[in-house]
């Protein structure tokens, strides 16, 4: 087991994000030029004292952000046009403004994901999307928590898009950012559960229908509508909560 990392990091920042920042600085200050190989897993482990899983998570973040690209058997290489700062740490979500910003990111990524899924999905992948939808509906009708079923539906669509970088990015958001955002939304006054559930089931059904029909434009539109409605509902709930506090 590698020693505990001595790498300086911000309070609450994950080790993976700290590795991302470290490599980003090497690229930005010219120590690693576009097209050059970044340090190997073994080199990063030896230098920073982090685990192999932390390095792999950091590389996944950098790939999703377009910072690096990996070629099997050759290594991972820096790309040009790297942003000066990559915020991939869920602890950066510190306000309702951040929660809404995460939803904006999901709208951009997941609308594209749904469109690709409609165009590229296999019959086996469609069956997975259908099964996830059925599980979501069953949870809704039984009055059970739908969090996991909802996430499974969205990830099944991302899997059907057949773009592993897109899937990795959405999986990271779902695994790390959404639990953080729920800390801010759980206290808000929302619509009656029955109203919210019926609306969400219809929105999910519209997405599924477009994917079944291989209608990429309708799938993108349905996903955008679904997540935009979610964002608008949260925005209104937040404003009502703020007004009630005055």
TrEMBL record:
Q: Which Gene3D superfamilies match?
A: GntR ligand-binding domain-like, Winged helix-like DNA-binding domain superfamily/Winged helix DNA-binding domain
State if DNA-binding is listed as a keyword: yes
* Tree of life domain: Bacteria
Cross-referenced CDD domains, in alphabetical order?
Answer: WHTH_GntR
Classification via Pfam families: FCD (PF07729), GntR (PF00392)
**UniProt keyword list:** DNA-binding, Transcription, Transcription regulation
Query: Which residue ranges does the record assign to the HTH gntR-type domain?
Result: 13-81
Official protein name in the record: FadR family transcriptional regulator
């Amino acid at each position: 087991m590698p020693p505990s990392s001595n790498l300086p990091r911000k309070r609450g920042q994950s080790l993976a994000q700290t590795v991302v920042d470290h490599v980003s600085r090497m690229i930005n200050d010219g120590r690693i030029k576009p097209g050059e190989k970044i340090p190997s897993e073994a080199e990063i482990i030896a230098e920073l004292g982090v685990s192999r899983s932390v390095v792999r998570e950091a590389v996944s973040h950098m790939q999703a952000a377009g910072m690096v690209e990996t070629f099997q058997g050759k290594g991972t290489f820096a790309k040009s046009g790297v942003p000066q700062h990559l915020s991939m740490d869920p602890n950066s979500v510190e306000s309702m403004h951040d929660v809404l910003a995460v939803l904006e990111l999901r709208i951009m990524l997941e609308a594209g994901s749904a469109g690709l899924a409609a165009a590229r999905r296999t019959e086996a992948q469609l069956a997975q999307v259908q099964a996830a939808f059925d599980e979501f509906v069953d949870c809704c009708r039984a009055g059970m928590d739908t969090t996991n079923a909802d996430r499974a539906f969205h990830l099944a669509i991302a899997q059907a898009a057949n773009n592993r970088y897109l899937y990795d990015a959405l999986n990271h958001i779902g695994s790390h950012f959404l639990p953080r955002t729920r800390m801010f939304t759980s206290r808000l006054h929302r619509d009656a559960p029955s109203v919210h559930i019926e609306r969400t089931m219809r929105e999910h059904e519209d997405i599924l229908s477009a994917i079944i029909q291989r209608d990429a434009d309708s799938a993108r539109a349905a996903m955008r509508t679904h997540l935009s409605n979610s964002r608008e509902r949260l925005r209104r709930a937040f404003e009502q909560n703020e007004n009630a506090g005055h």
